[in-house]
């Protein structure tokens, strides 16, 4: 179970870094989405990954050893929420950037060089 | 156990929420922000007083016991930093009232500043690594928006760079937390500090330590994670830059101080050379970057990097004397840097530029501003009788006593270069014959007031350095005395 997850995490990281290195703000945002998901999955594997047992102890007591650890799950829950908020903000920013310079190319955002078709500049 | 600990988080958060409910006018929002930051400062002062007399204060939120529940803890360093942030927040709000336009003040500026202050106080007070992550994110979201408000091309570029690097840092932070949890089975700082020495997987713990070093290095803009800072700090209104320089990078440094004295103090042979290397390179890279700059804001931004290097020297040496000197330096440096940014704002208002080449001759037209620039500049360079002299002296002496000759030499050399840079600025801004005569008022009292207050504080800390050093020394003692912290956080039975 863990091995599979680890492979997925690795692939997600590779994809994330690949997209982030592209020269486009939209791809940068996509890369950061993947990066967040990869990290959340990595967080998930930190304790024993079990199958079909909830991380809750029944009132009568139960098989303590086989339960999933609830703590990483609560961490992930928090991390997902935060990640989601950040990404919403990032998308707004990318959208603003696109509207301001008229392209999603990162080089057009670079203020060292003039924009491609800036009116009146 | 004391409920006062929750107030530095509640006051700014509640004020931010309330502020958003107010009508979009400058007056009420400004008044609320002033009141909230003043309240935060006085609560923090009270907290510092309590910690000084009664030792580490701990609050178990909701009554849950320590390793399970959320715990807030304040030792002297935390309390000092909350007080410093509150006071800086207050001064920045005053300065905003003078420097921002009515339209900006009526918008989201004050609520964002308050949310950021809440994040900063939370980072200082939390006793749990995951909560540290959450407070970091809160503070970062506020800072992103502050940076991106009024989207122009330049600010969008700066914000996109800053945000990408911050999100990357957050991802690394989470991975480090995952590793630590896998190794230690806890993320409570005190609990983890107890468990880490006995774990079976020191390589993983070391990897986590290095990841955290990278993450907090990124937040505190230490070399080699520093290049985002001069690329983004020169774009927002000057008061935002001053606030960022006073709070954001310092939270990174605080997190380094906290984790590397508490969690990873067991293997100093590994971590100390790395931290010292980062410190020395930060000092050098920052100061050499600043030497060639003619844009006043970029110049000061590079200076931030070199000053963070000084703070890390204290952590790298990790003797009580070095830590104490670093903490004293910290207080002095936050004051000096903010004062410099504040004066820069006034200069920009008069001359309409932040390029050094276009200023000049201001010593004749605006002698008061010259004086207000001179005090923090000399203090930053370490000239007596201002606060920087004793702090820098203490750091150099600590380096010499630890026989870190190279570090001491670099520290002294960088101090001289800092003096050179600030003399350059002085010559360009105040002495050189101006291209055009700059006339006009120096700025409203709300802009000059904070500068005057900070100048007086620096003079006071220079002439009466004793109390600050006693306090810093005690704070350093607490940092090194891990058992007391662990005991206080985990409660009596451990």
From TrEMBL, chain A:
Transmembrane segments: 6-21, 28-46, 75-97
EC number of the protein: 1.6.5.9
Compartments, as annotated in UniProt: Cell membrane
PANTHER family the UniProt entry points to: ANTIPORTER SUBUNIT MNHC2-RELATED (PTHR34583)
Topological relation to the membrane, as annotated: Multi-pass membrane protein
Family note: Belongs to the CPA3 antiporters (TC 2.A.63) subunit C family.
Gene3D superfamilies per record: 1.10.287.3510
Record key words, sorted: Cell membrane, Membrane, Oxidoreductase, Transmembrane, Transmembrane helix
GO molecular function: NADH dehydrogenase (quinone) (non-electrogenic) activity
Organism this protein belongs to: Stigmatella ashevillensis
Taxonomy, superkingdom: Bacteria
Name of the protein this chain belongs to: NADH-quinone oxidoreductase subunit K
UniProt key word Signal: no
Automatic annotation (TrEMBL), chain B:
InterPro entries: CPA3_Na-H_Antiporter_D (IPR050586), NADH_UbQ_OxRdtase (IPR003918), ND/Mrp_TM (IPR001750)
Recorded topology in the membrane: Multi-pass membrane protein
Protein name: Proton-conducting transporter membrane subunit
Organism name: Stigmatella ashevillensis
Subcellular location: Cell membrane; Membrane
Highest classification ranks of the organism: Bacteria, Pseudomonadati, Myxococcota, Myxococcia, Myxococcales
Family membership: Belongs to the CPA3 antiporters (TC 2.A.63) subunit D family.
Transmembrane segments: 6-24, 31-52, 72-95, 107-126, 132-150, 162-184, 204-225, 237-257, 269-292, 299-317, 323-347, 368-390, 402-423, 444-463
Family annotation (Pfam families): Proton_antipo_M (PF00361)
UniProt domain NADH:quinone oxidoreductase/Mrp antiporter transmembrane: residue ranges: 128-413
